[in-house]
Amino acid sequence: MHFTTRNFEILGKSVIPGETKTIELKIATLHTMTELKVPIIVSRSVYDGPTVLLTAGLHGDELTGIEILRQVIRRGINYPKCGTIICVPLVNVFGFVNQSRDFPDGRDLNRVFPGSQSGSLASRFAYRIMQDIVPLVDYIIDFHAGGRGRFNVPQIRIEPNNEELDALAEAFSTHFILYSNNIEGSFRAACDKLGKKYLLFEGGKALDINNDVIEEGLQGTIRFLDKLQMLNNNFTVKEPTREMVCIENSTWIRAQYSGLMQNFVHQGMFVKAGTQLGKITDPYGLVEEPILAPNDGYIICENEAAIVFQGDAVYHISTKLKNDQERITQEI
């Protein structure tokens, strides 16, 4: 490792080697004339190395990722052995205050990237992130959760056919790698266009804090930093307890009726085609409609809502594993 004397400049502030500093990004002035700011925690080593950005709360109601980064900071995982770690535990302060996914202008922040200097409020904020923060970093982990009622098994989502992303995802090591193409307007797509190495972590559901998912996110982050030789010596790397399942394709099973829903399977299970995953009933004893697995696959996400409507996504199931990876039929 080589010592560095170069200061790190972000948002007009300087962070010297060995320093941790909280820098505030002003995003708006409310109609009450109150300034709304996003705290950004920057930690530098005295040694040269990569720059990693850890973000959560892009959707303000996805609390588990926020808690993962809170613990990363609280435990000092963000103090790097080399390089720089930038933590933004709560990107969408508006949504967090309102317990909402969206910005106050009704837009999904994760569909307006790379943003515009003269666009909507969400678009302007996205523009600031892409102009002032992302160009400074080499690697990104963005923490997310499922929508309301929909519980995602811990998974890393990456673009296919990228060997470096494969290696980073395997280092993070959680239940599943899910290969999926970038969505236009997403933070992931905008970062990819700038050549940044980006992992999207999904786990849990909105407006919920799940300790098992938090532990998966924490241990994955530790392994990721260790892979980059950035993990400080205060932490021990725990080997993953399972082999990751690599999913090339998947599909959503949707409710054919509205009604009360009961689940018979658990997230992460491998099921055979024709397995009854759950059932939808009416309050009067007239309808009892089974939900069947359309193919062999892993249950990646499960809708835990007690009431569903026709067309609602109720199960996310894998349809193809990478390189015909052996299907393990026990629950993981």
Automatic annotation (TrEMBL):
Domain Succinylglutamate desuccinylase/Aspartoacylase catalytic: 48-226
Keyword Ribosomal protein: no
GO molecular function: hydrolase activity, acting on carbon-nitrogen (but not peptide) bonds, in linear amides; hydrolase activity, acting on ester bonds; metal ion binding
Source taxon at top rank: Bacteria
CDD domains (UniProt xref): M14_ASTE_ASPA-like
InterPro entries assigned: AstE_AspA_cat, N-alpha-Ac-DABA-like, N-alpha-Ac-DABA_deacetylase
Cofactor(s) this protein cannot do without: Zn(2+)
Keywords from the UniProt entry: Hydrolase, Metal-binding, Zinc
Protein name listed in UniProt: Succinylglutamate desuccinylase/Aspartoacylase catalytic domain-containing protein
Transmembrane segments: none
